[in-house]
Sequence to fold (467 residues):
Amino acid sequence: MLMPHMRLHNTLSRQVEEVVPLEAGRIKMYTCGPTVYRFAHLGNLRTFLLADLVRRALEFEGYDVTQIMNITDVGHMTDESSAEAVDKMQLAAGDEGLSPLEIAAKYTEAFLADAAAIGVRPAHVYPKATEHIPEMLELTRALVAEGHAYESEGSVYFDVQSFPAYGQLSGNTLDNLVPGHRDLETAPGKKHHADFSLWKQAGPGRLMKWDSPWGEGFPGWHIECSAMSMKYLGDRFDIHTGGIDLTFPHHEDEIAQSEGGAGHKVINMWVHGGHLRLKGQKIAKSSGNVVRVPELVERGVDPLSFRYLTFQTRYRSEMDFSWEALETADHRVKQLRRRMVEWAPAADGLGAAATALDERFREAVATDLDMPKAVVILNELVSSDAVPDGEKYALLASWDAVLGLDLEREALAGWEPTAEMQALVDERDAARAGKDFAQADELRDRLQEMGLEVMDGADGTKIRPRD
Ligand code: AMP
Ligand code: ZN
Fold:
């Protein structure tokens, strides 16, 4: 079978493009993470599910993916365009009677728990903005030195006129950006109305502030992603993800900072997700109609069912949330898990009908994550008369590396590997991580001799009894 190649819509080119890794077999990706001054809602989580899906789909194709997700714990202001704006972290700290660091710790922990509950695989590093102030200052200093930024009244601004490619991502070129555009910062002392801050002078009452060559201050919102992405992924990486609202100004400004600093292209592909709306309303903290993961659990919905729900809409389209649709998705996921119990054990090989479905499923995933089509193919498999039960089980178990619905949960319940089996599994995962495939194969043979079926899941070796 010809390996399908992942194709994704690149906001930069406005086209669906083949993912061509900078380094063979490896993908380096950066995901704009949460601002940790409040709980994440299902809209935010839809965007994090997209990043997770990109990663799982690439791993499904055999890539080794490194994913970095930042934690924004400083610098995100209530209103970028107003001089009276307050840092959201500081505002929440005031409201809750906690310090900004306590606020960050509280909501980071909640975010990680919510993300885990919906099957988002953990990033390899979660760098925090407050722990990377020196890196941000260094990049700011370099941008000033290279003529891409300037100081004015204790703040430092990026000089957009020094970066001719400004606007290429969002279409907000300097010709298009009129003064007074709502996403532009208003500050005295800027050379151009579209210049944006890299470093801001600390005003009176400001709690989170650091020393800098320009006096006490704090970083602008965008600089953290440039500094941290390049620190952990290098000055060229493959994919950057985020919600569509981040295209401008956040990502436009990130390109200017990173590429201005590096002197060359840094990020190959930009993948942006559409918003989730509740009753026709965009779900956002400001609109009050926020739905969170614990509420799903309270209503008896498995949080993983939210994944299945999001698969029914293409990721770039806006999606309306409804409890009815979520409950239907939940019913379906639970039904699939019960069918898996009936279909177990997994067959060893696949016949022609199952192979054809497998190819179509992989092709759908590789086609800019066409999950609605993948779900249709899944339904075809479930109701097919041509595919024997054991092959249905084997296919769904393998597709679950992308779907992340824990479809084997019930089929595997009640069986626990012995300590010896687990030790061999751990040893095999270590061998695979170290690319010692001969050793990994030998360990697989030993597990098979113990009467086990051995599968290569995205999370490592999976075993189950071959009854
Ligand atoms: P924030 O924590 O506000 O920085 O947002 C985290 C992520 O959620 C960003 O990638 C946003 O683009 C994304 N986001 C915000 N609102 C929504 C929404 N209603 N639907 C989907 N994604 C969203
Ligand atoms: Zn970012």
The pocket of adenosine monophosphate (ligand 1) is lined by residues 32, 34-35, 43-44, 46-47, 242-243, 245-246, 275-276, 282-284 (CB under 6 Å). The radius of gyration is 24 Å. Residues 323-343 form the longest helix (21 residues). The first strand starts at residue 7 and ends at 10.
